[in-house]
């Protein structure tokens, strides 16, 4: 199962600063929250997570949680959801149970029926600017206009994809900033002869760190990412029909038009000339 296969079903959404119970609970569907508090601590699966305004935390059904904030409560906005919408699943909001009364048979998406191994049990992002997306889900869910569930599903899939990307890169601010800076540098200089060593020298990092950052963020090596990005730019230039194949090759960083044509066909399935002809 892959992230692109999911079709989230938002069963319930709130944006009213509800508070998480101090008593340990277990939910029967999945939960994702964005903290509205400047400080707070939530315990999920026995581990404490310090929340600031903008923190996002997700956990799967069947995992215990509670608010352990001293001198206050965690305020949040968020959703109860399933990764997939199925006719056999209840459409109404599904509550939680106190830990001592929890019955795992009541979990909506059971692990022996749906493969959810592609997604971690818990994801905690100290800060990411996602409040507006959570609010948009809540606005759709509250208004319940035509196709609202489709819109909620699309918005939540965007959020889940975003936090999974950050999780895979590393959930620290530094790792996120490093990956943003490195990928931006590649996109701005893709015409150059970029290697892990060249980028490492630019940012004063080890080449292996550059390679790991790119692979975690894009799913492919620097070499493949660079080729794919160059071919994407080439498609734009060829589509305009203002340039020859040789000119486009030079524009996207190839000195050898034959090498460019082979790379283009390998990625797109057709040669540059065939692409121009349509």
Q: Point out poorly predicted stretches.
A: none
Specify the overall morphology. elongated
Oligomerization state of this entry? Answer: single chain
**Widest beta sheet: strand line-up:** 1-8-3-6-10
Mean pLDDT: 90
Q: What does the radius of gyration come to? A: 23 Å
Note the total helix count. Answer: 9
Number of strands: 10
DSSP strand (E) fraction? 15-25%
| Biggest sheet character | 5 strands, antiparallel
Percent helix among the residues?
A: 40-55%
Q: Which structural category do the helix and sheet elements fall into?
A: alpha+beta
N-C termini distance = 35 Å
Which sequence of SSEs, written as H and E, runs from N to C?
A: EEEEEEEEEEHHHHHHHHH
In short:
About 40% of the residues lie in helices and about 20% in strands. The protein has helices at about 130-145, 150-170, 175-190, 195-205, 205-220, 220-240, 245-250, 255-270, 270-275, and strands spanning about 10-20, 25, 30-35, 40-45, 45-50, 55-60, 65, 75-80, 95-100, 120-125.
């Amino acid at each position: 199962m892959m992230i692109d296969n999911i079709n989230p079903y938002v069963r319930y959404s709130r944006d009213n600063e509800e508070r998480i119970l101090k008593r340990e609970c277990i939910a029967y569907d999945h939960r994702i929250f964005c903290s509205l508090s400047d400080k707070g601590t939530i315990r999920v699966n026995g581990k404490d997570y310090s929340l600031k305004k903008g923190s996002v935390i997700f956990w799967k059904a069947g995992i215990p949680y509670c608010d352990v904030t001293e001198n206050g409560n965690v305020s949040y906005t968020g959703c109860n959801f399933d990764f997939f919408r199925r006719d056999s699943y209840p459409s109404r909001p599904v509550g939680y149970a106190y830990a001592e009364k929890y019955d795992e048979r009541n979990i909506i998406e059971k692990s022996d029926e749906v493969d959810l191994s592609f997604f971690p049990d818990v994801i905690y992002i100290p800060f990411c600017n996602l409040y507006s997306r959570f609010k948009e889900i809540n606005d759709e869910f509250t208004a319940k206009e035509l196709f609202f569930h489709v819109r909620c599903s699309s918005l939540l899939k965007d959020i889940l994809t975003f936090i999974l990307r950050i999780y895979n890169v590393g959930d620290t601010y530094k790792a996120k900033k490093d990956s943003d800076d490195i990928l931006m540098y590649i996109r701005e200089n893709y015409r150059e002869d970029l290697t892990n060593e060249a980028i490492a020298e630019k940012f004063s990092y080890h080449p292996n760190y550059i390679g790991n950052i790119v692979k975690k963020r894009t799913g492919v090596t620097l070499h493949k990412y660079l080729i794919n990005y160059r071919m994407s730019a080439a498609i734009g230039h060829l589509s305009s029909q203002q340039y020859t194949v040789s000119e486009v090759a030079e524009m996207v960083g190839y000195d050898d038009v034959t090498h460019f044509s082979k790379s283009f066909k390998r990625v797109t399935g057709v040669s540059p000339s065939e692409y121009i002809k349509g």
